[in-house]
Specification:
- It is built from 10 helices and no strands.
- It is mostly helical.
């Protein structure tokens, strides 16, 4: 799993870096939905910072670090003593999808070594599907995007794994970007 980044790179610098990797990689794999590709670039940019990777917290304020913990927190949303929140449910579902896509794409070996590959793929796909349904119910503009992420989840995850293997090798990048690749351990 990723370690803390010691040498900061600006968000715009990270986004530009990930665009240069994701666009050609996904294009070569036939992933052409621009909104999906931009979403993945934004996801990588955000999750390069561990505070965003572990931003979902429980009632005590502790970060949730696994999909299982996130699913437990999601279940707590439905308990009668708690007031259900559309925004909280949407946030958790989207984060589960994002976390699963990020980890099965860039840290596939780690996920599989834990015996979680199939579980993470299924939970990620289902989370985006639920987010799409919630978005439709709430008239949120991203309903189509989440539906596309659900449909293409395994292809996108495999695409990120391909990008990691081909484009994210630290020796291909100098300076802070090479350091980022080494620190992420991709």
């Amino acid at each position: 799993m990723p370690r803390r980044i010691t040498k900061p790179i600006s968000s715009s610098g990270l986004r530009s870096f990930f665009q240069r990797l994701v666009f050609p990689g996904f294009t070569s794999l036939g992933i052409a939905d621009r909104e999906v590709v931009e979403y993945v670039v934004d996801l990588l940019t955000s999750f390069a910072r561990t505070d965003q990777l572990y931003r979902i917290r429980d009632l005590r304020g502790q970060p949730l670090e696994t999909i299982a913990e996130m699913m437990v927190e999601l279940g707590r949303q439905r308990q009668p003593e708690r007031r259900w929140s559309f925004d909280r449910e949407m946030d958790i579902r989207r984060h589960v999808g994002d976390y699963a896509l990020f980890t099965t794409g860039l840290f596939r070996t780690w996920v599989e070594r834990q015996g979680l590959g199939g579980y993470y793929l299924e939970q990620g796909r289902r989370a985006y599907g639920a987010a799409a349904e919630l978005a439709q119910l709430g008239f949120v503009s991203q309903a189509r995007l989440f539906g596309a992420l659900e449909e293409q989840f395994e292809h996108l995850s495999g695409g990120l794994d391909y990008i990691r293997k081909v484009y994210m090798r630290p020796e291909l990048h100098g300076g802070a970007h090479g350091a980022l690749m080494r620190e992420l351990g991709v």
